[in-house]
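Worked example 3 (structure in, sequence out).
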């Protein structure tokens, strides 16, 4: 099954339609995972501003990844659009 849930809107979508954000096992940093070659706890987001914004509210991303979110991650995600 290739569907994943967006951490912003909660909709299920095909993995290809979502941005994958992964907490790398080492050194534990949170990165945008374009090729899915990085393994670790991951969340998915739709390619739209509202889902990205929503995922940063109430520390949703931080809680989902159980990691601190780098200050520049939101800007990087918005650059993906
Ligand atoms: Zn979404």
């Amino acid at each position: 099954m290739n569907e994943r849930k967006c951490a912003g809107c909660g909709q299920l979508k095909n993995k290809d339609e979502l941005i994958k954000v992964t907490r790398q096992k080492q050194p534990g940093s949170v990165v945008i995972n374009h090729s899915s070659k990085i393994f670790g706890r991951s969340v998915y987001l739709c390619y739209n501003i509202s889902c990205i914004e929503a995922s940063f509210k109430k520390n949703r991303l931080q809680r989902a990844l159980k990691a601190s979110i780098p200050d520049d991650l939101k800007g990087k995600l918005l650059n993906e659009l």
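Notes: The beta strands are 3-5, 12-14, 18-24, 30-32, 40-46. Residues 3-70 form a domain with the Hypothetical Cytosolic Protein; Chain: A; fold (CATH 3.30.1230.10).
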